[in-house]
Amino acid sequence: MPRSVNAVASRAKRKKVLKLAKGNFGSRGNVWTVAKNTVEKGLTYAYRDRKYKKRTFRSLWIQRINAAARMHGMTYSEFIGKLSVKGIALNRKVLADLAMNHPAAFEQIVKTVK
Predict the structure, then answer these.
(1) CA-based diameter of the chain, in Å?
(2) Collapsing DSSP states into helix, strand and coil, what is residue 109?
(3) What tens-digit pLDDT sequence spans the chain (114 residues)?
(4) Residue 79 to residue 84: CA distance in whole angstroms
């Protein structure tokens, strides 16, 4: 009896991986074994960096808030501490946006906190 292989599913799986590898340089985009490794590593990086992106943005927001707060004679830690004491519930993303795009509004928040 001949060996039964599911060629349709195997071909579909390979096509899916090669489609994900499209745009890579040289054999990374069209040779199955190389493309498979490339795609696997790329997906690992994508998963890792979705987490990393959150960290880097929070860091950026903190730097922007700190710079804006120092322009008004406060440090970042003083500013955030006084915000929580006053009960002003604005997150860092919103504060950084105000600091960058609406400096007058940020100044009002600093005056309220002082």
Answers:
(1) 86
(2) helix
(3) 788 889 999 999 999 999 999 999 999 999 999 999 999 999 999 999 999 999 999 999 999 999 999 999 999 999 999 999 998 888 999 999 999 999 999 999 999 988
(4) 9
CA distance 79 to 65: 9
**Whether the Cβ atoms of residue 79 and residue 69 lie closer than 8 Å to each other:** yes
CATH class of 9-113: mainly alpha
Cα–Cα distance list, 114 to 3, 17, 21, 101 (Å): 80, 57, 55, 21
Sign of the Cα pseudo-torsion (70, 72, 75, 77, in order) = negative
CA-atom Rg of the chain in angstroms? 26
